[in-house]
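Predict structure. Chain length: 299.
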Amino acid sequence: MIRSRIRRDGWIDEFGKWHRHPTCPRQGGGLSHFHAVKFRWSIAPPPPLLARRLTDELRVSPLLARCLVNRGLTEQDRAADFLQPRLRQLSDPFLLPNMAAAVERLFLARRKDEPLVIFGDYDVDGVTSTALLTEILTALGWRVNHYLPHRLDEGYGLSQDGVENCLRRFPIKLLLAVDCGSTAVPSVEWLRQRGVDVIVLDHHQVSNPPPLATALVNPRSGTGTFTELCSVGLAFKLAHALVKRGRETGLAGAQNFDLRPLLDLVALGTVADLVPLTGENRILVTTGLQRLQGTPRPG
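Prediction complete.
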């Protein structure tokens, strides 16, 4: 049993947060009674042979081996990758659904010197995704603008008001929706009717039917992989795909472009979006936090 701290004025501290207990009114400077909050923890017992094997193979403590086994990390290679995440462990970005189609449309815009707008979102994930893609696309020669909708005036996501205001400001034929758009069937159709191609890069639930975008890059529309990534993680995967295709095709600047300075934005957006720090998120955040210690970005 875990007992919470309680002050004389009736406020209780549970896990560092003070709140007034409903059954503890203040009376005459003291408390009428105190009802202890009870917690019961159930610890899963790991198979001792698996834990002992990891202890020997990885040279870690029995307690750490037990934690790894309880998290399903029973194989030496997977457990080692979990303990020491490295960028080389990242998967091919073209394994994401429709990534190839998105890259192809972006390269078409690059060859035609066609401007595009990144339509982002106003939360940290959306802002960091927009900043990351604006940075890499500009550096590699795309003509890029960005648009962040107003939370109160235009609402959330790829709203009709937001899309119309965006087009009035940037009359383009290619819109890259980031951290939104997976359910924006009417808005995407409205854009298509006006000759605007839409690429959706998003991690939220996809509507049924999905929007008829030129490319819908969303892990939830694929085979179930990469589902831990938020939009800034997907933006990094798109950046990786662009650099990879650029190196294959001789795009100016792609050969020497370093993706690692973008990881501070990835770490910030990933942590702020409260997605699980597993899979590729663990790799991106670990490396990104190291970058944050020496980032030249303001703030």
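Summary: Strands lie at 5-6, 11-14, 17-20, 26-27, 30-31, 116-119, 144-147, 174-178, 197-201, 215-217.
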